[in-house]
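Per reviewer request, we include the raw input and output of the structure prediction for the construct analysed in the revised manuscript.
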Amino acid sequence: MRNLDKYKGIIPAFYACYDDEGEISPNGVRALTRYFVEKGVKGVYVNGSSGECIYQSVADKKLVLEHVMEAAEGKLTVIAHVACNNTKDSRELAAHAQSLGVDAIAAIPPIYFRLPEHAIARYWNEISEAAPDTDFVIYNIPQLAGVALTQSLFAEMRKNPRVIGVKNSSMPVQDIQMFRAEAGEDYVIFNGPDEQFISGRVIGAEGAIGGTYGAMPELFLKMEEYVKAGELKKAREIQYAVNEVIYKMCSAHGNLYGVIKGVLRINEGLELGGVRKPLPGLSETDMEIVREAAGMICAAKERYLG
């Protein structure tokens, strides 16, 4: 019997943590993991887009996950994104993730070359075979991967008993409805786009994974509480406030995750470093945006959390 309840809730995407030399910071990884435990989120999604996965080596990803698992002490659901742009490295990461006891692994489709659906299915299934005792989550993010999860490909993947759901980061919220309708109750559809969190939840997503959750987890947890209680007007007010923060953070010259790490430094005292090149770091003028976003989050928490 599947245990899907452990995936239903707020699951922040984990940020890459660097030291002064730009290498993975085990101390930063541990501090960020403990921060999420203290905030009371359901789990973490490790080594995905927010973890700058495209710019991480296999060794980097292993190191991050090892320290997350040690620091989490079983208090978080852990989903490890293991996709690399080749099957061999992806399988190595999948086997490593299972050896550490993660709850699930996840993968985007291979990028750059446009593969036919049967090749994408083979890629995902071969990754899943390397972690035979671990749940598998399909990561649908067509705007970045260049490939969309179709209903026919999803139907093929559901033949794999380890597949338990889809992290859906496509922008049409209707996609969540369609995946949910096709898959039924024995699968979890995760809302991906943070700006439409409540829309995704209302239309059928039971879990949610997002890249900005870590900057303001309390606000997403409160929205989740209101959605469950049917208090959608209150949830919408917070969604609007959250979206204004997201727009502010996205207005910087530097990368969004650099802004978020700056916000966490101000609001939470976390030292997570910058971003890895070629992602653009923060400029001097961006620091005002970081301060404004940090202040907006504090003001929203004071207003909506009491």
